[in-house]
Design a protein that fits this description.
It comes from Halobaculum roseum. This is DUF5805 domain-containing protein. InterPro entries: CopG, DUF5805. This protein is mainly α. Helix content is 55%, strand content 6%. A two-stranded antiparallel ribbon has the order 1-2. A hairpin with a 4-residue loop joins strand 1 and strand 2. The termini are far apart.
Length: 124
């Protein structure tokens, strides 16, 4: 976008390496996209609108749009089937990781009776 501005921040090399590893682990194609997501998550944590006054909050559609553009740009053009496979594969991996994490923390569990995942019952 023509109105986009660059923000230059100096951080230790160890932080950049950590950001890159975290971005890759979380499926981001760039450090910049990862840092934008982390800044917005922090803004939400402080009760702020991550996109600023009057702007829409990021949606799943925005996330998918960004992933499509990243995939097409990385390949310098791509067939639609290849892009769909790349984006859905990434989302499928993220869903699997989330299920594993929620299961490990006891938030969800497998129910033989329901033949699937359920929210774990908590004692109050």
């Amino acid at each position: 976008m023509a109105s986009d501005k660059s923000l230059n921040v100096t951080v230790p090399k160890e932080d950049l390496d950590r950001f890159d590893k975290e971005a890759e682990k979380m499926g981001f194609n760039s450090r910049a996209a990862y840092l934008r997501a982390m800044i917005n998550a922090g803004r939400r944590e402080f009760g702020l609108d991550p996109q600023g006054d009057g702007a829409e909050d990021g949606t799943l559609q925005d996330f998918i749009d960004e992933r499509i553009l990243d995939a097409v740009n990385a390949a310098d053009g791509a067939r639609s089937g290849e892009v769909i496979e790349e984006v859905t594969g990434e989302i499928e991996d993220l869903v699997r990781e989330s299920i594993e994490q929620l299961n490990e923390t006891g938030t969800i569990e497998y129910s033989v009776n329901d033949d699937g995942l359920i929210v774990a019952k908590r004692d109050n």
